[in-house]
Amino acid sequence: MQSKLIFQNHPYTEGPRDKVMLITRDLVAPFIYPTPEIGMDCSDISYIYVSTEEFTASWYTVAPGSRFEPADYHAGDEVYFVLEGTLTMLNTSTGQTVSVHEGEGLLMPMGTPHIGYNFGTVPTKTAAFLAPKIFADQSFPTDTIGKMKVYKHTDFGQPYDTSLLPARAGVLDDLGAWPVEGAAGRASNLFYHVPENRKLLAIGGVDNPVLLKFIVSNDFLNLAEMILPSGGKGARMTDPDSHEGDCAIYMHKGCLSVLIHDTNETFQIRDDEVLFIPKHTTYQLFNYESEPQHPLICTVKL
Ligand SMILES: [Fe+2]
Fold first, then answer.
1. Is the pLDDT of residue 15 over 80?
2. Do 50 and 190 share a structural domain?
3. Is 276 exposed, middle or buried (0-12, 13-18, 19+ CB in 10 A)?
4. Separation of CA 135 and ligand 1 centre (Å)
5. What is the pTM of this model?
6. How far is the CA of 116 from the centre of ligand 1 (A)?
7. CATH code of the domain in which 235 resides
8. Main-chain dihedrals φ then ψ at residue 172, nearest 5 degrees
9. What is the reported pLDDT for 4?
């Protein structure tokens, strides 16, 4: 439906952004990266759910055998969660190369230039969350064109220190600085791969426990996969929660029911939909289905 995406202003076109909003397929803005002026030889397609001054929630596809180019970088941290396929990311400034498999995460701190490759046979599907801004203005960076460090080819290089890369899983007290403290990560020129054995696992709730698997928790954003089980005496649910920052809940597959306490509104988030929840809104998640539900929860502040 959307013909022209405006970064930092989607799907709301005017403020204030203080209403809970279900972003269904007809409100999603697709965009092809990059532009004809830059060159269309190697492109990808993204689907933007919400983009504000605080954060952006989206997913994108790299077709089998292809890549996007030139290298992209952002005016915020970018966090991936791979939903389907295997995405191989090149940090063009250091040559660091990471294959991110289904269910794994990746933090690319603000300004880190990256190209995504699909060496597999199925399209990759990757949820991407950025905070605070996806781009400084409405245009894509072009200063990365033709500059990269790969095997036997170096025309770009930045210093880096691999001692910052985590060698263990996160623990609860790492919340706010996982997989690296925000500013240190941004100064490091590195990617931070978060496979299953590096995620920060936490039990969410005493009476209504859910499993939270944090990919990233820093001063810009928090991204966790939640495992909300099925079954139970009543429908399984979370404890009520609210956040100090805006929140997006993305469902890859399934159905998640959401009760907004202040207004008594009920929303259901289904395949490839996002619920935007403004800061300070108390909400509770319910699972009325037969299978556990796996929402991705992204919030600017916990
Ligand atoms: Fe990016």
1. no
2. yes
3. buried
4. 10
5. 0.95
6. 9
7. 2.60.120.10
8. -55, -40
9. 72
